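Tokens as discussed.
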């Protein structure tokens, strides 16, 4: 098979294993309580859907770097997707979000179920958040367990374990910094915000899959480091585009609110570019207000545009895209992998605005 055919086949196997993972958990949970079985069934929605960016990136990179057996890469791709889902579930709780991809997330589904069963709003919210915390914990532990690859030699197995540990460690650091900035404990600089994005999202989402592909393929430390730098830049690029869509995107197309980040008071580069301008100072009272309505959100969007912050931020996104492409072209990668990574950079720019 060609590398592309191997990637397609491996991605199909990832889907099968994710489906089996949830089904086995649901069957096992029936021995405990109906509520626990329902938690596992609801986790199926959390695990399903999405673009499988991380498994795709890992598997396509791996198959371009080596002709070796695909099994370790498939198992690790499943582990990384479970890690991604765990972090999303916990992030939704931290952010107070009850929807994802335009539908109730796991927390929202359990909260709604509690309300339907006669719970009051406070008890139903506690029920939903409890389910989310436990689901995230279960997914996280399963990801770590699946990240143990017994068929690898000790050196590569240890390196994969180090990468998973580093991703979780940095994701927690980034999440805490994100909340510290949002609640006003710290006013972040542009550099602080970039570091937060690299920790919270970029490492586990793109740097981890690319580095892991190099380790599994035994491509050497130099290729791993180069792919790590590419992954960091691509991760920041994707996050910046997410932050732009989180304020100016069309909810019907993005599946997420265009007011949530403003209501939360999320300190993005977009906001940092506006912070010291008169239009933003005049409108900023609504920023971070849990009761912010659409009229108030529109006033903040107007300030972000008239201050020049949106234009500056979009220019920064283009610069990051160009930086990522330069890193890709100078990394000494196989031509098809180089093309695929450049395409990923372009796809970040093409997402629904």
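Sequence:
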């Amino acid at each position: 098979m060609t590398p592309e055919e191997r990637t397609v086949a491996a991605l199909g196997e990832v889907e099968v294993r994710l489906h089996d993972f949830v089904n086995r958990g649901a069957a096992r949970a029936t021995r405990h309580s109906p509520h626990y079985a329902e938690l596992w069934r609801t986790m199926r929605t959390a695990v399903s859907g999405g673009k499988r960016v991380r498994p795709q990136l890992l598997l396509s990179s791996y198959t371009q770097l080596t002709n070796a057996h695909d099994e370790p890469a498939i198992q690790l791709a499943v582990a990384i997707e479970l890690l991604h889902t765990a972090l999303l579930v916990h992030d939704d709780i931290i952010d107070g979000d009850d929807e994802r991809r335009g539908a109730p997330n796991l927390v929202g589904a359990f909260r709604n179920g509690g309300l339907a069963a006669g719970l009051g709003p406070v008890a139903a919210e506690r029920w939903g958040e409890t389910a989310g915390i436990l689901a995230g914990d279960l997914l996280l532990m399963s990801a770590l367990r699946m990240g143990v690859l017994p068929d690898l030699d000790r050196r590569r197995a240890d390196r994969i374990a180090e990468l998973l540990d580093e991703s979780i460690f940095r994701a927690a650091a980034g999440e805490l910094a994100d909340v510290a900035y949002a609640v006003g404990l710290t006013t972040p600089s542009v550099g602080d915000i970039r570091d937060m994005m690299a920790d919270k999202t970029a490492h586990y989402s793109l740097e981890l899959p690319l580095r892991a592909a190099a380790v599994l393929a035994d491509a050497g430390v130099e290729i791993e480091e180069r792919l790590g730098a590419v992954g960091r830049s691509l991760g920041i690029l994707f996050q910046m585009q997410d932050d732009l869509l989180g304020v100016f995107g069309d909810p019907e197309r993005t599946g997420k609110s265009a007011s949530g980040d403003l209501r939360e008071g999320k300190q993005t580069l977009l906001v940092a570019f506006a912070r010291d301008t008169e239009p933003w100072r005049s409108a900023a009272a609504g920023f971070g207000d849990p009761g912010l309505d659409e009229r108030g959100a529109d006033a903040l969007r107007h300030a972000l545009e008239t201050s020049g912050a949106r234009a500056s931020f979009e220019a920064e996104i283009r610069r990051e895209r160009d930086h990522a492409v330069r890193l890709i072209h100078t990394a000494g990668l196989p031509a098809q992998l180089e093309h695929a990574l450049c395409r990923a950079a372009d796809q970040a720019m093409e997402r629904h605005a």
